[in-house]
Amino acid sequence: MASGGADVPPAVQGIHPHTWELKGKRKKYHNQTNCDRVSLHTKHITGDLIMDKQNYTIKNITEQEIKREFSRIRNTIIRAIRNNAIIQRKRIIKEAAVLVDAAYLYIIRKLSYQRLSDEMACRYGIRMSDTAWKKQLRKIAGIFQDVVAQHMQKCLTESSSKTQQTLLNYPQVYAADATDVPQEGRQNIVMRIHTQLSLSNHAGVRVKITDNHTAENISLLPIEAQSLYLADRAYGKARQLAHLIDNQADFVIRITPNRLKVYADKECRQRIDFCSLLSESISSFSFSAFFRYGGSTYPIRVVGEKLPEEKQNDAERRVRKKAAKNRSTLRTSTILFSKWLIVVSTVAESVPDREILATYRQRWQIELLFKRCKTLLGLKKCLFLRLSTKLSSFSFGALLFSLFPPSSLSAFLPRIS
Predict the structure, then answer these.
(1) Are 347 and 301 contacting, i.e. CB atoms less than 8 angstroms apart?
(2) CA proximity to 385, closest of 133, 201, 155
(3) What are the tens digits of pLDDT across the range 337-364?
(4) What is the pLDDT of residue 112?
(5) Apex CA 193: angle with CA 116 and CA 230, to 5°?
(6) N or C end: fewer C-beta atoms under 10 angstroms in the chain?
């Protein structure tokens, strides 16, 4: 850091460059960790900076805004509990804030009802059985869900008005996918969370929870006309593509040629042989085609690109491992298709192929959503609950994702866990 005041942010101008001594204070930064922390913030954070008076370190103003937002959400939930008269007799739990804190502990720290009962007894001196806590939390599960949904819609609206980011000039671009979450205490019971994430502003998440026997299906999620949908191979089937087209939505979806019959003519008589096409010495291709579903014929655009050499090896290793696990016969065509990125789209022909493929790769953001929710929010497993409480838990995780920038998630979440 430069020693002159001109190159130093306003919040750090009172700190001596060598001893890190605050003017008017006798405290010095003898701890090297604090020095590194101040230097790190000064180097990477731009804009208005403020000082933490307790630790004499620089804090990003964004983190304080996040804390204030959490406080506003908590107060909204408390008011909703009071307005709905959830706490009536007030014999043991007398304040709505105590019930909200219990819900926070249960959702964020993934406590069992028995452990929650012990925790609340130590913190607040409230002695209730685990069954009583279960009843109380089920009463406010719907309130949590409504408040989270309202806040997500607020984030979606504000982000839409503030950001001008668009993908392929669509007002909204969504990524659709699903993830499985096992339930603790229930052997072989897995719930599947079908999710729709807005990529235009990273602030809108919609979910549908089913058991793991329900296949990934785009019809489980709301479809908005004039929007663009991105999805992986699980959604690349004729029925799901037709559902999007019938609802006047466009898509860029990866396919496996074995699962979708693509034809070169509108009468759907000449099927395209992808094995012969991909066996040629080409690195990419693009053509117009058709597929049929329910007696109707739909036009699509097929774009393909060969994966890099290292990714080809990884893809082949994955399909071989999956075949060995399922004890199924591995086809040569399956190995060939795994080395290619093949997508079908209804985007205008004027859009270049490279932009379509680049837009599809933005789908990876929903994978990051699942990863953060499972690693940072502890959603690798879910307690055995009714559907409404499960939905509240995942919605709260989606709320955290929308509030926190990715860089501050790992640093802030341990403080509330």
Answers:
(1) yes
(2) 133
(3) 999 999 999 999 899 999 999 999 999 9
(4) 80
(5) 145
(6) C
Name 305's bridge partners: 284, 341
Find residue 209's DSSP bridge partners: 193
| Number of CB atoms found within 10 A of residue 75's CB | 13
Sign of CA dihedral 405, 409, 411, 413: positive
pLDDT of residue 158: 57
Distance CA 101, CA 98 (A): 5
Beta-carbon contacts of residue 55 (< 8 Å; ≥ 6 apart): 34
Q: Give the number of other Cβ atoms within 10 Å of residue 312's Cβ.
A: 15
CB 106 within 8 A of CB 136: no
C-alpha 175/C-alpha 363 separation (Å) is 5
Percent of the chain at pLDDT exceeding 70: 65
Q: Which of 148, 194, 196 is nearest to 172 (CA)?
A: 196
Which are the contacts of 262, defined by CB distance < 8 A and separation ≥ 6? 271, 272, 274, 289, 290, 291, 300, 302, 344
Q: How many residues does the chain have?
A: 417
Count the neighbouring beta carbons within 10 Å of the beta carbon of residue 94.
12
pLDDT in tens, 104-163: 777 767 678 888 889 888 888 888 888 888 888 888 877 776 776 676 666 655 555 444
Q: Residue 173: in which H helix or E strand, if any?
A: strand 173-184
